[in-house]
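Reviewers of the previous submission asked for a worked example of the structure-prediction workflow described in the proposal, so we include one complete record here. The input consisted solely of the amino acid sequence. No template or homolog information was supplied to the procedure at any stage.
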Amino acid sequence: MKRLALWGLAMAVPLALALAGAEAFYRSYAAAKTLYQYDASLGWRPIPNFTYQGRRRDSGGARYPVAVTTNEHGFRAWGNPTTDRARVLFVGDSFTADLNMSDADAYFGQVADQLDAEVFAVGAGGYGTLQELMLVEAHAPIIAPHILVLQFCANDLANNSFAIESASIVRNQKNLRPYWQDGAIIYRLADHHWYKVLYRNFALFRFFDQQLQNIQYRRYGGYRDPAYPPPTRTQRREADVITEQLFKTLVATTPTATDHLTFATCNLRHRGQTERWTRIANNAGFTPLPQVGLAVDDAAKTDPSVLAADGAHWAPRGHAIAGATLAKALAEPVARANNAGT
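From that input alone, the workflow returned the following structure tokens.
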């Protein structure tokens, strides 16, 4: 028995050392490229004072440089909130926040260059509307935006639904994100649940969880586990109701005179989802801007430099098109806000 215990110890010590070394290595390796960190309320959030310089590829394989920064609030763009100039607040998901484009190349950087306005931009990959609302609630008192622009994606409808997202294989989103249910914020897992404990404390766990997700994605042909039945009509209607409530709460969170607009980044290919987004926006007091996504989609049909290598997100060319289209749509509300401030 003693010999067996010594043999077990002899095996356990090098294994523990190997795991510790792998954890240290991956933690150091991932830190330079990881834009987000665990957050008990939001699930995850942009790391404050983050800096990244690297290269990415567009859908045609061409490489382009990327320079990304965040400020102490985790914002990619932070104008001057104390001036009388029009203040435009953009909030969104990966199209606003991920490392596919430099700050200056992003659609919000293009808007800042083309309009007489102070531009603010924040978001995180995988965010749903509730998380974007929570960011606005935290920062609207500081910014007091004249214009709020919500960047929306088709998967936000599923992200906003506890029931629909149950089928997702993206555990680091569904297990961490907050959900809106009957006007209250709920979470799928308690803070002490083993998944949350391992996820927030061990980079190696996050790595293997991502590798398992990649395997499942290839096997299932998407992010939905086929063991779950497709969303029912009732579940889709509930997702629409939740999303509309969140849109309305965004309106109530900002100053009374704020203009509210929303543009879609990846749902223009799906007519039904576009109609749902448009209806929700109009009912909640947002002005939908379908022309932004349409302009990018049209250009992407013939120009591989429009989209990033994943074929979904925008490369700098796509952001330039979106920024120019947004600047045109925002010109009137920006001028109105500037005239009111003089």
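The chain has a mean pLDDT of 91. We consider this example representative of the routine output the project will generate in years two and three.
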